[in-house]
Amino acid sequence: MKVLKRTTVVFLLLVLCVFVVEAQSGRRKTTPEPAAPVPTPTPEPTPPPKSQQKEPDIIFFIGVDRNQTYSYYPSTYYDAVLSGCAEALRHSSAGVDVSRNELPRGEAIKKSKASTNTYTVLLQFSDSRVGSTSSTQRDDQLELEYVVFAPGTAKVVTSGRTYQYANRKGPVVMGPTGGGSTSGLYREALLNKAGQDAGERILRALHMSVPKTN
Fold first, then answer.
1. CB of 141 within 8 A of CB of 127?
2. Which of 80, 95, 100, 155 would be 191's cystine partner, CB 3.0–4.6 Å?
3. Domains of the chain, first to last
4. What phi and psi values does residue 63 have, to the nearest 5 degrees?
């Protein structure tokens, strides 16, 4: 009986071993799938370097003294001479800064002394006939005075007066004296020309390029 039990146990062990061997031999070795390739990021194009605008070596600061004369003139008169002078100065290599505020002579001197490269251009009207009682006569005899202060020292480097034409020696002839917008626009055009003439004379005095004008 004992021999039979032993034989049965041995048989069962053999069957178990055969089953384990077959199971191991039948098991397939799974090969892992290759990892997906990591995409190489496309480098962003390098933006071209921004060209840095060089600061001008010389700057003209232009302003007007509106309280120099005893007469009252429209603000458009001052705007006209400022615009004309700035237009002429911009034809040079210098930078131009226009002040729309009041610029008394004392403030112009202070600004020039406080800068190392800024010429301060002061514009102002002058009455040819202080004793004239008619506002029309005063408008017809407007003269534009200009003075330029050097940077650092505020020394006057040039000054003068301009009129309707560069070769004219006399006050600005304002043209029609009748009322209306046409007369005002005509006067402003002539004052703009006087401002241009002042700017061109300033450039000549400083030995800078002067635009060709008709």
1. yes
2. 80
3. 59-205 (3.40.50)
4. -150, 170
Closest to 66 (Cα-Cα) out of 52, 77, 53, 54: 77
Residues 6+ apart with CB under 8 A from 214: none
How far apart, in whole angstroms, are the C-alpha atoms of residue 125 and residue 114?
26
For the chain, the helix, strand and coil percentages under 3-state DSSP, each to the nearest 5: 35, 20, 45
Sheet holding 156-162, edge to edge: 95-102, 59-64, 118-127, 142-149, 156-162
Residue 132 has pLDDT above 70, yes or no: no
Distance (Å, whole) CA 204 – CA 211: 10
What does the pLDDT look like over 133-189, one tens digit per residue? Answer: 444 444 556 789 999 999 999 999 999 999 754 445 444 444 444 454 457 788 899
Within 10 A of 8 (CB to CB), how many other CB atoms are there? 10
Backbone angles phi, psi at 187, to 5 degrees: -65, -40
